[in-house]
Design a protein that fits this description.
The protein is about 45% helix and about 20% strand. The chain is of the alpha+beta class and about 70 residues long. It has one domain. A hairpin with a 2-residue loop joins strand 2 and strand 3. The protein is globular and about 30 Å long.
Length: about 70
């Protein structure tokens, strides 16, 4: 298990000036082109990693992470 993934996502959100509440489309637009490490030797675009989230609006960061984790099951 790669434990730094969530840390990498948080840093990418901060570097992209993401603040909550935010809509999914606005978030995807702001993180376009931003890469994150999701495993020891694997990087992906954050926008690609988040595209399967099933809700369109996030009231806060906790709701975003819950939706992101649920989209990976």
């Amino acid at each position: 298990m790669y434990r730094a993934k969530n840390h990498n996502i948080i840093k990418a959100l901060e570097q992209s000036f993401i603040s909550f509440p935010i809509g999914k489309q606005e978030l995807l637009k702001k993180v376009e082109g931003v890469e994150i490490g999701i495993d020891y030797n694997e990087k992906v675009l954050l926008s690609d990693y988040c595209k399967d989230i099933n809700i369109d609006y996030f009231d806060n960061k906790a709701q975003f992470f819950c939706a992101l984790n649920a989209s990976k099951w």
